[in-house]
């Protein structure tokens, strides 16, 4: 075969692999474009499931998803905080570009999302479950069925506002997944669809006996920065139960796609909005905060049982969904489509991922850059400790850690949440130190790496117009107890009002 014929054959193969497949025989629309389903866990650690190697945590549906699709091992969110992370996913922009970078800030009406692009192109678009994005952008979806989140943060015996004490009656409502299947069944049969399915699991607070076979303390696998005590293990095994409950709803979605005979040409993506709700995890810029499970199943185009080690970011989801639907990416979206990775998982689409830390219950501001090997963190407020979010401060694990800290029984790694001041810069070799325990920022052997990452962060901030806020946002919870302070405001003010001091 001559070179011209070889190139033509290669182009035809690539086109056949990337272009949408024909509709299926039954349950199909008269449109070859794929259906799109995004499933978002709430506060789930990246490696807390069977497909990521957990030896005891039972997630058969996620295991099925990975076996039938592709598991990504280096996927990251742009912020380890619920609403900023979701605003970033919806807009395909970094949190500071959305004007919704702090917890509870609503996404402004002027922001462009990938959803309205799909809707304008003929997709039926629906969201069900946790919303947390404000009222202004609900009209981007044809249907929005928000979960009831009242009482969601201050359960399990914690004192708080009256509204926070309202009980959620049953498991389906408590998980946020009650409307998932009903919404999927309501879709028009003559159009492709997008479903945004957002769980409340495994966010705190936790309850006992929520699944038929609860996990036991012996099932728990603890990272080195968490002390191993019976209290801590009990807190973790209830967190595991919520993940298993969520896994059951994921399985229901996969089964319903099968019943409707649309699974083959439906792209399903499962992720978490941020890391697990434990100390040194959620709201941090460590991998335990920003690394996310990321599993794609698309039988028409993705071979089963594959893994991908390339770096991807949730800022890439919007471009990917638009690309899959045959639509161009708006120039305002800095992310990149991962379509080529679905064909060849050894391909690389980026050299770095970037992440942000903003106010989340407590004053905070930081940035991180991660390559395949190194992580660089810049702490702009080194005068503040790395206090976890208020729901974690109220947790049995953090109370246990505080008790052990007071009597001098925590290891060096376990005392990091209480350290003050914190270093203005952190650098980690993730190949040698995956839990990010040894800061190399002052090590001369890595001075060249530090310079490289400093320059990369500076350039990224200039490119994305990332500047420090003109004023610091005060804490709204007590750092010792996690209880609301008198100045607590919820829902939070819009960005413009806050910057005016209103």
Briefly note the structural class of the backbone.
alpha/beta
Query: The biggest beta sheet, please?
Result: 8 strands, mixed
Specify the overall morphology: globular
H/E series, N to C?
Answer: HEHEEHHHEEHHEHEHEEEHHEEEHHEHH
Structural notes for this entry:
With 502 residues, the protein is α/β, with parallel strands linked by helices. The chain folds into 2 domains: 324 residues, Alkaline Phosphatase, subunit A; 144 residues, no CATH class. 28% of the residues lie in helices and 13% in strands. The protein has 15 helices and 14 strands. An 8-stranded mixed β-sheet has the order 5-4-6-1-7-8-2-9, with helices on both faces. Helix 2 crosses helix 8. The longest helix is centred in the middle third of the chain and has 30 residues. The N terminus is likely disordered.
Task: Pick out its properties.
single chain; Alkaline Phosphatase, subunit A; 502 residues; disordered N terminus; 13% strand; alpha/beta; 4-stranded antiparallel sheet; 8-stranded mixed sheet
Give the gist of this structure.
By secondary structure, the protein is of the alpha/beta class. The chain contains 15 helices and 14 strands.
List the helices and strands and how they pair.
Layout: H1 3-18, E1 35-41, H2 60-67, E2 70-72, E3 75-76, H3 82-91, H4 95-98, H5 114-120, E4 124-129, E5 143-146, H6 171-175, H7 180-186, E6 193-198, H8 230-259, E7 266-272, H9 287-290, E8 294-297, E9 306-308, E10 312-313, H10 317-324, H11 339-343, E11 353-357, E12 366-370, E13 374-379, H12 390-393, H13 396-406, E14 425-429, H14 447-464, H15 495-500
Parallel strand pairs: 1-6, 1-7, 2-9, 3-10, 4-5, 4-6
Antiparallel strand pairs: 2-8, 7-8, 11-12, 12-13, 13-14
Helix pairs in contact: 2-8, 5-10, 7-8
